[in-house]
Amino acid sequence: MLYSNTGRLNCSVLYATFSTSIRGQGTDNKEYSSMLHKALEGAIILETFPKTTVDVFALVLESGGGDLPVIITCASLALADAGIMMYDLVSAVSVSCFGKNLVIDPTSEEEACQDGSLMVTCMPARNEVTQLTLTGEWTTPKINEAMELCLDACSKLAEIMRSCLKEAASVPS
């Protein structure tokens, strides 16, 4: 590795062999690792870490559906709790479409029969989307409705994340 004035972010997502109902089966770890990297890289102030690599390792012990948004949100909280300089916390939410209905934070059973899914990761205080993933067939009005639902949920989730960090910081060790 050559000298760099900015730090590097390294992300790895792994599933325990017992994390899914089918023993030894997990989703594509490389794809999730790449998506985690993309969601977090814009939030971390890597310029404050020259010649440094920030490693984020996520191990999923139990998969119940909607894993990636949870992984991204927890990784963001862990980085903030570790004192890594960030522009903002990253919160992530997914929505599944079933005909005319939208379901936020779907289970694996719901994901198996969905018509489409939308995942949004954002930095709510900066009003920036760091990643957007859309699969399936959507109408434009349904995409707009799902986006509003996700962004509102991300903002609410970020408030909860901030309160958890404040609470953890105020507890004497």
- Average pLDDT taken over every residue: 90
Strand order of the largest sheet: 4-3-5-6
Classify the helix fraction into a percent range. Answer: 25-40%
Class by helix and strand content? alpha+beta
Strand-residue proportion: 25-35%
Largest sheet: 4 strands, antiparallel
Low-confidence stretches: none
Would you write up a description of this structure?
The strands form 2 sheets. A 4-stranded antiparallel β-sheet has the order 4-3-5-6, sandwiched between helices. It has a two-stranded parallel ribbon with strand order 1-2. The chain is of the alpha+beta class and 173 residues long. It is built from 4 helices and 6 strands. It starts with 7 loop residues before the first strand and ends with a helix. The mean pLDDT is 90. The chain is globular and about 50 Å long.
Question: What is this structure, in a nutshell?
Answer:
This protein is of the alpha+beta class.
Strand and helix map with partners:
Layout: E1 8-15, H1 29-41, E2 53-60, H2 67-81, E3 91-98, E4 101-104, H3 108-112, E5 116-123, E6 128-136, H4 140-170
Parallel strand pairs: 1-2
Antiparallel strand pairs: 3-4, 3-5, 5-6
Helix pairs in contact: 1-2
Features:
4 helices; 173 residues; two-stranded parallel ribbon
